[in-house]
Amino acid sequence: MASAAIDVKRQAYALIDRMATSQVSAVVSLLETMLDPVSRSIANAPIEDEEISEEETRAVAASKEWLKTNKGISNEEVLAEFGLSAEDFERMKRTPLEPLAQGR
Question: Is 60 within the bounds of a domain?
């Protein structure tokens, strides 16, 4: 089995060697996406097919109406309400949260 995997990799290397730089760039992007678990999950996620309820439709309409006469609330303002900065938020995206202990 290991030999078959090596043969496939050699074939991939040989094909990449024959490609133009722009084609290799596209392949690299594809490989990065395939190896990134979040991108892979998004790519494999089912299409949203849940119907929008009347309540949701009214809520969206109400929010659009509210924005006609009020200033929107920035992400920074929302974060500040929780004592966070934009830098804190960016760091949280990159750093996995600790798993919750059992019973918490």
Answer: no
